[in-house]
Amino acid sequence: MNTPLHVRLLKALYGLVVNNLLAIVAVAFASSVLQRGWPISVDDLTAWLQAQRRVHLLTAAILMLAVAKLRRTRWPKDVYLVEYGCFRPKPCYRAPFATCREHAHLMPYLIDEESISFAIRLLERSGLGEETCVPEAYHYMPPDRSLAASREETELVIFSAVDDVFARSRGVRPEDIDVVILNCSIFTPTPVFADMVVNRYKLRAGVQNVNLSGMGCSAGLVSVGLAKNLLQVSPPGTHVLVVSTEILSSQYYVGTERAMLLPNCLFRMGAAAMILSNSPERARFKLDRVVRTVTAARDADYRCVFQEEDDKGNTGIRLSKDLATTAGHALKSNIAAFGPLVLPASEQLLVALSLLKRKLLSGRAKVRLYRPDFRTAFEHVCIHAGGRGVIDEVQHGLGLSDEDVEASRMTLHRFGNTSSSSVMYELAYLEAKGTMKKGDRIWMISFGAGFDCNSVAWECVKPAPDADGPWADCIHRYPVELPEICTKDI
């Protein structure tokens, strides 16, 4: 939807005036006071200072500096993203539609033709492209769901992402890491993945490690929030390594329940690693706001993404048909807390006026609440690539354009739903396209089991010097045109 030019100009002028109103009023008031009521001239002030003993002036200056320093130490420390890296799968792991269709018919389990047809239709409408990748275990007939296969996939995706982030960080070494936070929702072996990283990279004995599980696709941003809390109370120069992934090998569902076949069709292999610090040295992004909303008190939300057994005893993840709607409701609750922290005064004023209008006209007229324009607060939006329906729901709810959600749709097309790591692939897409500029603000949105909704705001400090990342070999082909789909139930 194209907004007329004069409307855009009026809105820009309104925002400029309202967002700077306090500063304008403060300057005008201070100028008026200084001109009319200031009893001391500059000459009088100079003469008074010269009359004071220098030791008294020095003592006063030291006290003021000490107070300023003490006040600053009580402020929360700023947190920065030093660098990030993503797993880039080799072409041998590709799962094009023709392969998926062939494997579905060759599957030795008792999967009926109707279930196969449903899965193929779902895949064709999913928004996934022909280059998404699955682990080696999925290329066997039947799929290898063994512990050994899962460990092999784990080592491949996690170590590749961590190797990439250390190679790109240009200075941060494994021995500089103070905390490891690793999240994987379903597969959690013993020892846990965080210990696996410590062992592989021979991190120092005093390193702290945390392993998060069961939080689904939202866990990546939950990990960022945890890292922020730790860094704000840690000594300057502390480094946290955050790794986000989902291991698929042992989770292939072999039954016929449609709601439990969805993960087989949508999820693909991937991982992302981040190095965060409370020191601005070598920083590429500054972490701003982190807001998490949990709606697990509602039974429907709690069971929206649910691991269970079907009536034949096959374990899988059941995705509710109301997943996109649930995500939309959770996002509204999240925005209620996140919006006031990031929106400019001009947008908050319009929201307040619409609320006041609804209250005054209650019972006499139906007043539609004003939908704030988050594009006034962010230049880029990264929506978890959970599926075409999820992206559509968020785009419609926030009033975003196709350009605003391009990174999310293209990530879904190229890499599929890589769970908690997807938003980092989207950030890599923006940088590979060259659209990220210094000072740009980024809003990351993720959803996960529970039901959870997370919002994280970043500010770009230093754009990537090159596009060497997961998109390096294909960015020239994007964006691609996605086919239109029917909205009927599949």
From TrEMBL:
Residues 379-459 form the Beta-ketoacyl-[acyl-carrier-protein] synthase III C-terminal domain. GO terms for molecular function: acyltransferase activity, transferring groups other than amino-acyl groups. This is 3-ketoacyl-CoA synthase. The chain crosses the membrane at residues 12-34. Keywords: Acyltransferase, Membrane, Transferase, Transmembrane, Transmembrane helix. Its EC number is 2.3.1.-. GO terms for cellular component: membrane. Residues 74-360 form the FAE domain. Pathway: Lipid metabolism; fatty acid biosynthesis. SUPFAM superfamilies: Thiolase-like. Belongs to the thiolase-like superfamily. Chalcone/stilbene synthases family. It comes from Digitaria exilis. GO terms for biological process: fatty acid biosynthetic process. Gene3D superfamilies: 3.40.47.10. It comes from the Eukaryota.
